[in-house]
Amino acid sequence: SGFPLEGIFVWIVGPLVVTLCASLAWAQFPRECITPEGLRSGQCCPSPTGVAGDECGSSTARGQCVTIAADSRRHGPQYPYAGRDDRERWPLRFFNRTCQCNGNFSGYNCGRCKHGLTGPNCDQRISVVRRNVMQMSTAEKQAFVNALDQAKKTVHPDLVICTRRYQEVFGPDGNSTQFQNITIYNYFVWSHYYSVSKTYLGPGQASFGGVDFSHEGPGFVTWHRFHLLQLERDMQVRRRKWGC
Ligand SMILES: *[C@@H]1O[C@H](CO)[C@@H](O)[C@H](O)[C@H]1NC(C)=O
Ligand SMILES: *[C@@H]1O[C@H](CO)[C@@H](O)[C@H](O)[C@H]1NC(C)=O
Ligand SMILES: *[C@@H]1O[C@H](CO)[C@@H](O)[C@H](O)[C@H]1NC(C)=O
Ligand SMILES: *[C@@H]1O[C@H](CO)[C@@H](O)[C@H](O)[C@H]1NC(C)=O
């Protein structure tokens, strides 16, 4: 894919600010939600504290579990296969209730703070500076590369990926859901792949490559800003551990 070029592009448009509301907008799925029961319920509203009944941190007013909607307008003529692709009206094929976070809280379980905020109540500002790689010392560059290397080796603590179409997701016995662990860096690569991959039309038929959910449309810039932010944040929360 044109990935290296895009990499340059997203760095150039760096200052653009993106606001995203739906926590599952294009993530794959929180590990807590992919049990057979969880999938059958269509609800993905984990608790940030792991306490039963505290969906989305509702006991401390961090958020609540809500029914979600997606744009229901017809697809354009460039995509004639309505209903055949799990990514249409994402993430409704998998989940139709997710967390909506209040105030400064964020994340799939409202356990994180919005960008630029920190503290138990997420009301303290922090400033995150993106350094120019050309002005970094050799040691700083090495620390960055080491952190990338750690990201490549460390299993993502929260998210798992779906490696089958929804139709096959409950497994051959109906009770062994088809999800896999993935490392933090590979998750970054996977989510890009998943968004651009072809639409499967059935055995023996050529897959349809005429739709590309992250490039061929007005979401191109915002999608890629968020894509990069996700890796950036996954690495920032581990920066002390990884020594950068
Ligand atoms: C939400 O998803 C569940 C599980 O797939 C389904 O049973 C339910 O009918 C859906 N609700 C709506 C409003 O679509
Ligand atoms: C969110 O954080 C800002 C910045 O510290 C603060 O001024 C504001 O009161 C916070 N909002 C809520 C709802 O806590
Ligand atoms: C899945 O497991 C549950 C609980 O063990 C059982 O009640 C159910 O019948 C199983 N479903 C299928 C399709 O095997
Ligand atoms: C993923 O890893 C976690 C712990 O790191 C483990 O409990 C879980 O069974 C693994 N899940 C899969 C689908 O391999």
β-strand amount: 5-15%
| Major β-sheet annotation | 3 strands, antiparallel
Indicate the percent of residues in helices. Answer: 25-40%
Task: List the total number of helices.
Answer: 5
Strand-pairing-aware structural class: alpha+beta
Order of adjacent strands in the largest pleated sheet: 1-9-10
In total, how many beta strands?
Answer: 10
* General form: globular
Q: Roughly what is the average pLDDT, rounded to an integer?
A: 87
Termini separation comes to 30 Å
List cofactors, ions and other ligands: 2-acetamido-2-deoxy-beta-D-glucopyranose
In sequence order, what are the helices and strands, one letter per element? HEHEEEEEEEHEEHH
What do these coordinates show?
This protein is of the alpha+beta class and about 240 residues long. It is about 25% helix and about 10% strand. It contains five helices and ten strands. A three-stranded antiparallel sheet has the order 1-9-10, with no helix packed on it. It has a three-stranded mixed sheet with strand order 2-4-3. It is globular and about 55 Å long. Mean pLDDT is about 85; it is low at about 1-25. The structure holds 2-acetamido-2-deoxy-beta-D-glucopyranose (4 copies). Its cofactor is Cu(2+); Zn(2+). It comes from Xiphophorus couchianus. GO terms for molecular function: metal ion binding; monooxygenase activity.
